[in-house]
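Protein in question passed on here:
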Amino acid sequence: MGRHVLHLAVETVSQPCEQSGFGRRKIDAGHADLGKSQLAGPVPHPGQKQRTVTLTAVERRHPPIVGTAPRQLLWASEDDTRAFAEHLATRPALADAFIALHGDLGAGKTTLVRHLLRALGAQGRIKSPTYAVVEPYELPAYPAWHFDFYRFDDPREWEDAGFRDIFAGPGLKLAEWPDKAAAVLPPADLDLYITLRDDGTRAVTLTPHGARGAELLA
């Protein structure tokens, strides 16, 4: 929870007897603490008295921004990938989510998709849709589509193949190489970046967007 504190200094003002009002103020811009200002009035008249007023510090609290903070993971082996997929499969928000998968060739994007679809009850062979662009799956709870836009280079295919209707309707959408279709793809609920490191482990960054993305990582 963010905190913003406004510091106000104690001010001493000169005030004529039996009268109210503050004297002229000036700010010392060279003060070391820029959050404080020194307030000074004119030289007191013998008929005036000194009054000290303490201005109370004001504290304001702001709720955290939901669904924007990336999360970092490290997968040491395929078992870690499987464990993550099985945990993600339990999230109710996955039913209508769009997850964009980023990473170089061999990073492990398709492996993650296979473990996730298996955890969701997919039967039979789960193959990469590199040439078909999309592979549909009828899961026990809801439908899913696995996209691979690596060879996508004709925006007309977006309409002709009915991809717009798929993304506008219910069901889970998983897309590898989303940057290849960035001009037509809707915003993802979760961007997942996989980086294969020299030691064979995988650094994973999860960036949620909106309420559904935040719920996926809750």
